[in-house]
Amino acid sequence: MPARAVGALQIDLEDSKIDFLSCGTQKWLFGLMGLAFIYITPELQRNITLKFNHWSTFGMHSSLLDYNLDHNNSADSLQNRTINIIGVNALIGALNMLLTYGPSKIENRIIEHTIYTIEQFHQIGIKPVCGKYKITNLSGIISFKSPKSKLIYKRLTEERSVPH
Fold first, then answer.
1. pLDDT for 10-32, tens place per residue?
2. Whole-angstrom distance, CA of residue 28 vs CA of residue 25
3. Is residue 164, in this structure, part of any structural domain at all?
């Protein structure tokens, strides 16, 4: 769940005891398709044996002719491809916009929409799985069971609005 919530809900990775998080940026963070990031605690990183060495694996990767093969102790050592500079800069702009608006405002707005949708579902006889959750456990995702699931899927497909 945390990866799907990044950008929508405020997550305290340390408090949640999350040591590793890998997440695409194209959903709630408004990043470009194909750009992702990882979060890894220093403790977990110390326990990882790298399978491949590449230019950013080493501490002095800006001066490869020095042949200093001491490993880089940052998460950069896990980056084994060329960085998508355009995507990263677009993400920086999107993050600045999100931070300007305010993470708590974003989270509150998403939860308001979730509560509203749950209420509307109840009014038409649909019981969402999350309908009994505490507000603190809600997100922007609502699941429900329906005896008409095949019909719903068919209609959504016809409307080109297939859920993902």
1. 889 999 999 999 899 998 899 99
2. 7
3. no
Structural domain contains residue 69: yes
The answer to whether residues 88 and 25 touch, using CB atoms and an 8 Å cutoff, is no
The pTM is what?
A: 0.73
Q: How far is CA 130 from CA 84, 96, 140, 143, 147, in A?
A: 37, 32, 11, 7, 18
**Residue 60 maps to a domain:** yes
Cα(135)–Cα(13) distance, integer angstroms: 20
Helices and strands of the chain, counted as H and E runs: 5, 2
The domain of 74 spans 2-101
- What's the rounded Cα separation, in Å, for the pair 111 and 140? 7
Rg (alpha carbons) of the chain, rounded to whole number: 21
Same domain, 79 and 151: no
pLDDT confidence tier of residue 59, bands split at 50, 70 and 90: low
